């Protein structure tokens, strides 16, 4: 997750290294500066970049990109690696081996919260109160039809927001609980929260 306008540069850098499956998406990051928040500037434009690579090569490339784009500096962005269980749709990735790696300690997790449009700020605020250091907001649309699709009693329809929060594993349960209580996630139609392990994390998470 980088500042707006840098996603294309990172994508080009990945392509230069022959990395496939690179996608750039617009996103918004939360602003922790209290003065800017009082002025109504609670979000800042970001670029979200997805890339797929084999584990061993990713372990080399990701730190290089973190250094190149100075993500270890404050307010520059974050980067993290997620394990995947399958690759489909890209012929250049067909030879990639997807193997489950066991025995590694999980130190970080990413929390995804899907809510109706307008709920993202409440997610960010409640997560922050529970110890999170910010989040990234994606806006999208689901399927629009008379017969709205239901998943776990949650309607998938237009105007949804997805909030991604990266947090130390020991804080995840309290953050999830805070979000759930604030937005009444346990009630039908109020949202979905899911958590994924992070294989490696860089950038904002390293700041003290």
From TrEMBL:
One of its GO terms (biological process) is regulation of nitrogen utilization. InterPro entries: N-reg_PII, N-reg_PII-like_a/b, N-reg_PII/ATP_PRibTrfase_C. It comes from the Bacteria. GO terms for molecular function: enzyme regulator activity. It holds the Pfam family P-II. Gene3D superfamilies: 3.30.70.120. Coiled coil: none annotated. SMART domains: P-II. This is Transcriptional regulatory protein. It comes from Negativicoccus succinicivorans DORA_17_25. The lineage of its organism: Bacteria, Bacillati, Bacillota, Negativicutes, Veillonellales.
